[in-house]
């Protein structure tokens, strides 16, 4: 049985993304093209691979088994073909990164322009989302995560600033109306703008000062999905509706302009910066190898 490799790639893209539209965004192909490829593959195999409804796309048992075997296999095929890159003057090909929205906003802007200028034959695809995924099964070469979310069998390379802080801030108008908190527990009496991950998890607000760690779960008038709607929460804070808790670098332009004022700054907790991570024990595709070398170089270090 002769199966088109592109049809297998289409199936992996759709099954991993759990949808034709998301699969199209991740793979760079049209949703209709992916649908036709999957239908052709199912016809050739004589087995339904995906359960399709108006709301979701879920692999059948056969589809899930195929997905589990195909992801690593297709990545090995791509790595094998990439060997010819060693005979080129400059690396070429596609590099796919899965990153949190915060990294796409705060870490990559200082790195991507000089990297693409140094490697004009590399095409960079960035999928920004805040759910934790298997980068290989998702069709990506590498990801960016923070150390508490790294798997043990991954190689991790520091990328971006090595120390960051979570900041709390509010507009001058809000602080003028409701007063300034003096201790993290005072936030329990304030309007706080909260975030929730796509998984439904909500992390507490954490503060630290002179060895004392305080974790609180404040309430407030707004709850947004972290990443996708974080900018909305920032704008609502600027408008004077409540207090926000977010990466200091994300809030820095508003703090510098005076649109927001620091709240409880001595309590802002520090944490280590992000890492580029990728599976060990496999041949690195040339574009990924070039990216790793770049961020390890003085030009690619941003903090």
| Mean pLDDT across residues | 87
Low-confidence stretches: none
Fraction in beta strands: 15-25%
Structural category is alpha/beta
- Total of DSSP H or I helical runs spanning 4+ residues: 10
Query: What is the radius of gyration computed over CA atoms, rounded to a whole number of angstroms?
Result: 22 Å
The total number of structural domains is 3
Number of strands: 15
What does this structure look like?
The chain folds into three domains: about 1-70, Arc Repressor Mutant, subunit A (Orthogonal Bundle); about 90-160 and about 275-303, D-Maltodextrin-Binding Protein, domain 2 (3-Layer(aba) Sandwich); about 165-270, D-Maltodextrin-Binding Protein, domain 2 (3-Layer(aba) Sandwich). Strands 7, 8, 11, 12, 13 and 14 form a six-stranded mixed sheet that branches. Strands 4-3-5-15-6 form a five-stranded mixed sheet. A two-stranded antiparallel ribbon has the order 1-2. Helix 1 crosses helix 3 (about 30-45). The protein is built from ten helices and 15 strands. It has helices at about 5-15, 20-25, 30-45, 60-80, 100-105, 110-120, 170-180, 230-240, 250-255, 285-295, and strands at about 50, 55-60, 95-100, 120-130, 140-145, 155-160, 165-170, 190-195, 205-210, 210-215, 220-225, 245, 260-265, 270, 275-280. The termini are far apart. The mean pLDDT is about 85. The protein has about 300 residues and is α/β, with parallel strands linked by helices.
């Amino acid at each position: 049985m002769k199966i088109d490799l592109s049809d297998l790639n289409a199936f992996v893209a759709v099954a991993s993304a759990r949808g034709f539209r998301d699969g199209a965004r991740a793979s760079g192909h049209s949703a209709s093209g992916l649908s036709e490829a999957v239908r052709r593959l199912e016809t050739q195999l004589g087995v339904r691979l995906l359960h399709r409804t108006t709301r979701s796309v879920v692999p059948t048992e056969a589809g899930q088994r195929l997905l589990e075997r195909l992801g690593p296999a297709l990545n090995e095929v791509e790595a094998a073909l990439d060997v010819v890159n060693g005979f080129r003057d400059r690396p070429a090909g596609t590099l796919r990164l899965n990153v949190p929205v915060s990294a796409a906003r705060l870490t990559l802007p200082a790195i991507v322009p000089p990297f693409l200028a140094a490697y004009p034959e590399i095409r960079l695809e960035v999928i920004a989302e805040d759910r934790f995924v298997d980068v290989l099964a998702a069709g990506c070469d590498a990801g960016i995560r923070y150390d508490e979310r790294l798997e043990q069998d991954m190689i991790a390379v520091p990328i971006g600033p090595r120390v960051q802080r979570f900041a709390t801030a509010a507009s001058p108008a809000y602080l003028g109306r409701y007063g300034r908190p003096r201790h993290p527990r005072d936030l329990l009496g304030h309007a706080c703008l909260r975030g929730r991950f796509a998984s439904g998890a909500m992390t507490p607000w954490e503060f630290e000062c002179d060895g004392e760690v305080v974790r609180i779960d404040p309430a407030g008038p707004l709850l947004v999905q972290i990443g996708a709607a974080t900018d909305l929460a920032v704008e609502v804070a600027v408008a004077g509706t409540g207090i926000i808790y977010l990466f200091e670098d994300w809030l820095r332009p508003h703090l510098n302009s005076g649109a927001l004022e620091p709240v409880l700054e001595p309590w802002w907790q520090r944490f280590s910066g992000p890492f580029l991570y990728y599976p060990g024990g496999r041949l690195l595709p040339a574009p990924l190898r070039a990216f790793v070398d770049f961020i390890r170089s003085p030009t690619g270090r941003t903090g």
